[in-house]
Amino acid sequence: MNIRQAVLGDESALAYVHVTSWRETYKGIVKDVILDNLNTNQRTEYWRSVILKGEIIIYLAENEDEKIIGFASGGVNRSKNLEYDGELYSIYLLKAYHFSGIGSKLFQKVAYEMQVLGYASLVVWVLEENKAREFYEKFNPKRVGRAYLEGLECFEIAYGWFDITTIQHY
User: Mean pLDDT over residues 117-125, rounded?
Assistant: First the structure.
């Protein structure tokens, strides 16, 4: 397993992992029509533009065959009502690799890189019904928010770390 920064050329694989992991993880949480309408071509264009702009930290995990099997991203906190400067935007991992430790390594790598860039604190939003909440809880965050997502028709909760250095680093 290899963890590296995403580069131009990775966008199709990122889109595949993004769409596939949503379908695998959010089945029964998010309406099927939403999951069925996810489009890897649209996600590919999205990730291409994100990589080109270079404003978001993106690290990906490759298996031994150099196939991208997961990624994590972060940057400036988008929730202005929460007093954190950084935000973990996503961790997406193909279901076959859940509980392998790869998600932790991706999270820790992004948190470390954010610290290097001067971020002091971190928040993440997680769908309330997503069992992945337990993943974040092992890093001892505070539960700091809850919001309803109209488009997905479910709640999400926010976990925060006021000191990003308390997250074990990769």
Answer: 97
